[in-house]
Amino acid sequence: IVAGEWNHQHGFKSGYFISQRTGRTMFYRSSYELKALEKLENDLGVKDFKTEPFSIVYTGLDNLQHRYHPDILVEMLDGSQRLIEVKPNALVSIATNALKENAGRKFCDMNKLSFEVWTEETLCP
Predict the structure, then answer these.
(1) What is the pLDDT of residue 77?
(2) Which candidate, 53, 64, 70, places its Cα nearest to that of 106?
(3) Strands 15-18, 25-28: parallel, antiparallel or unpaired by DSSP?
(4) pTM, entire model
(5) Which of 1, 7, 55, 74 is most enclosed, with most CB atoms within 10 A?
(6) CA distances in angstroms from 78 to 30, 49, 98, 118, listed in the order given
(7) Nearest partner of 30 among 75, 88, 99, judged by Cα
């Protein structure tokens, strides 16, 4: 990841999205993430966005500390910020994802950001 690559074996679509709005090239790990980036690129209320902006530490099902990397941080023109997690609806309720979401929501509450989970319902209405 640090080198800008991710060697995964899941068969998900991945690649690079070049944003004209931000001037950044961003790595995406799924077709859903690509759709989210395209949606943000075309949203006139968005000032800036970046992928995997930081990590959040959480306790896993194994009671060990893990790092969760939220998918997208968005800054709106009104100055508000959103942390967006992109997931297929079928994966939202999996225990590990629920732990990550809880950690993300807690982080956002403490840092005055909103937390959103975008599924296919959000991306393909």
Answers:
(1) 97
(2) 70
(3) antiparallel
(4) 0.87
(5) 74
(6) 29, 14, 30, 21
(7) 88
Give the count of beta carbons closer than 10 Å to the beta carbon of residue 11: 6
Q: Phi and psi for 75 in degrees, rounded to 5?
A: -110, 125
Question: CA angle at residue 75 from 105 to 5, to 5 degrees?
Answer: 80
Q: Which residue has the higher pLDDT, 5 or 51?
A: 51
Encode burial over 26-54: b for 16+ CB neighbours within 10 A, e otherwise. bebbbbbbbbbbebbeeeeebebbebbee
The residue type at 118: W
Q: At residue 47, does pLDDT exceed 50?
A: yes
Q: What is the pLDDT of residues 15-38, one digit of tens each?
A: 999 999 999 999 999 999 999 999
